[in-house]
Amino acid sequence: MRVLVTGASGFVGPALVTTLAQAGHRVRAAARRPPPFPTSVEPVQHGDLADVIDWLPLVEGCDAVVHLAGIAHVGLAIPDALYDRVNHQATRSLLRAAETVKVSRFIFISSIRAQTGPAADRVLTEDDEPRPTEPYGASKLAAERAVVDSPLPYVILRPVLVYGPQARGNFATLSRVAALPVPLPFGGFRNRRSLVSRDALIDAIRYALTADLARETFIVADRAPIAFSDMLAALRRGLGRGPGLITVPRALVSAPLRFAGRADILERIDGELIASPDKLINKGWRGAADTAASLEQVARQIAAGRRT
Fold first, then answer.
1. Is residue 16 one of the residues assigned to a domain?
2. Is the pLDDT of residue 308 over 60?
3. Does 207 qualify as catalytic in the annotation?
């Protein structure tokens, strides 16, 4: 199968491109600045997704598209209109090109934030009505609706927070906190979060390319959620530190964040966000079983990268 992968220079893209090529797919890797790839991969450039892009030359000859490209994180300084142009309008434009050449499958990598805010009061499933709470999630949901309105066979994947080496955004911040050589006041933070490893997400994309999943939407997460304090403990073990977590009254942790106007951070460390991957698992996807062990391994890789 010839597969166009957009966003091939991001956190997930290079590893996905390499994995697909090793599995025997012919991969066309699209990015503004494509990184080095195996010789079997065809790198192609495109312009800024905020501008008008002629996608047709990129999709010609392809059997499938995996659309990763977009603004991947919530940013306080990013204009709402930019989220819409990059995450929604560029997806719509790519869909039109893919329809022209009649690709056999369009895989759209959305986000759990198309479905919810940074916390939820119940276990989320695909049956819940999407209620994004900020422009990033709204732009992803608008792109999802464009995909659903297309006549193409599609699979929409909604990953939760993705972790792995070279991760950016929230996981990068969490890793830096875990690396601090001081006790951390999060021992009592037993609120649970769903995470997904980059490897597990890549496996879900591979599965979506060939399995009988056409015109469906799936949450992608490790099999079980993990408490916030256990995340930090696993990362600290991987970094070669003791757990170093102490229990401090939550008010002493939360008050400075609220005072600083950063309730968004508080929601991420003190709120629960549990999303069920059962729908995709019941279709045959394996999913990662032990998030703590996977986080510990990622932390070892991060530590090794810092030493080189």
1. yes
2. no
3. no
Helical H segments across the chain, by residue range: 13-22, 56-59, 80-83, 90-101, 135-149, 169-178, 198-210, 228-238, 250-259, 263-270, 278-282, 291-307
What the block records as the tokens of 196 is 């997904």
Helix (H) or strand (E) holding 108: strand 105-109
The answer to whether position 151 is within a domain reads: yes
Q: Taking Cα atoms as reference points, which of 79, 67, 216 lies closest to residue 136?
A: 79
Q: Which domain holds residue 93?
A: 2-163+197-221
289 in a structural domain: no
- In DSSP notation, 235-304 reads HHHHTT----B----HHHHHHHHHHTT-HHHHHHHHS-B-B--HHHHHTT----S-HHHHHHHHHHHHHH
Total number of domains constituting the chain: 1
Q: Which two tokens stand for residue 158?
A: 């909604």
- Asked if the structure places residue 144 within a domain, the reply is yes
- CATH number for position 96: 3.40.50.720
Residue with the larger pLDDT of the pair 289 and 45: 45
The residue annotated as part of the active site, out of 136, 154, 163, 207, is 136
Length of the chain counted residue by residue:
308
| Tens digit of each residue's pLDDT (9 = 90 or more) over 189-215 | 999 999 999 999 999 999 999 999 989
What are the tokens at 56? 């047709």
